[in-house]
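Please check this chain.
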Amino acid sequence: MNSRPIHRRLHRRAMLQAGAALGAALLLPSARACEFVTSNFKLIHPWARATAADATTAAVCMAFEEVTESDRLIGAQTKVAERAELGGAGASPGVNFLIPEGQSSALSESGTYLLLVGLRMPLEVGRSYPMTLIFQKAGSVNAVLSIDYARFS
């Protein structure tokens, strides 16, 4: 019995599936690996700088884009810290950061940022840690906190 025709059909089918997948990937909007999409906005690249071994806090930065409905960041949880609060310019006790509709906004070192308090371990360059961000309307969003680089002294 000759199995060549079966192999040709399987090969042809695999090639058609690969071509269809490639075509779909080209047509769909691209998403970066560090984007997290909610029903109201797109959360871009939560990150912090690496910390010293004895550090007790770390500033977390991120951006909010394509905001279709105003929301508020009201909490954050991660295994690397005891709690989170806002820090920097415009900070108030706890976590209460407005994400306005129709605008891009950000938590950044030069303004208001999410402050991880009571670090349980040093944050090392190149590592990433699970983090849950809690929003008033969008609810809980499972994200990844990337540790980018250390502050130069």
